[in-house]
Amino acid sequence: MTDETNPAQDTHKGGHKGDRHFFRFHLPHVHLHSPYGDDWFALKAEKFARFFGTPTFLIAQSVIVGAWILVNIVGVTQFDVYPFILLNLAFSLQAAYAAPLILLAQTRQADRDKAHAEADALHREDLARASEERLSLAAHQTTMLVDLVKQNTKLTETIKALTERVEILTIEVHKQVIASATTPPAGGIEIAHNG
Predict the structure, then answer these.
(1) What is the DSSP letter of 54?
(2) pLDDT higher than threshold 80 for residue 6
(3) DSSP states of 157-192 as a string?
(4) What is the pTM of this model?
(5) Among residues 120, 117, 114, which one has the least CA distance to residue 35?
(6) What is the C-alpha to C-alpha distance for residues 65 and 86, in angstroms, rounded to an integer?
(7) Which of 33, 86, 102, 165: disulfide with 80, CB 3.0–4.6 Å?
(8) Is pLDDT of 49 > 60?
């Protein structure tokens, strides 16, 4: 029988990797398993202590006590007559064993709660650390994006300035080409008159 609160059983007896990852914060508490997890007597004692608090136990005990008293009062049998000493002895014996079993169950539950609380604290620390790493990465990426936007703005301004300069140079070259095409060279005119 496996205890549902025994995380090391899955990891040590061939549990899959997801269980090992899920119970990674419980592994430091593996040494606590014998006080609250896997010894036969403690498991049975805890089940018995839990049974004490069920309606089934209370109803069954009430029926047995009622039948015990009724049988002895009516006279069907006389094994425990009126002050019901044997019944009181049975109740005392039950109380003598029930109290330590309930205390054992509470101690085991307290150990489980402590281990789970420590595992939860480690889990919260792990989540906080991961969140801080994500925040620092986001801040770093934001800084990089701002730098890239600044570089892009500078490049855009440089390209704009170069484009304006190329346009001005193109206009000047165009003016010179048109001016040279409309005015014929002086030597070319003389050759035309001589010929």
Answers:
(1) S
(2) no
(3) HHHHHHHHHHHHHHHHHHHHHHHHHHSPPHHHHHHH
(4) 0.47
(5) 114
(6) 11
(7) 86
(8) yes
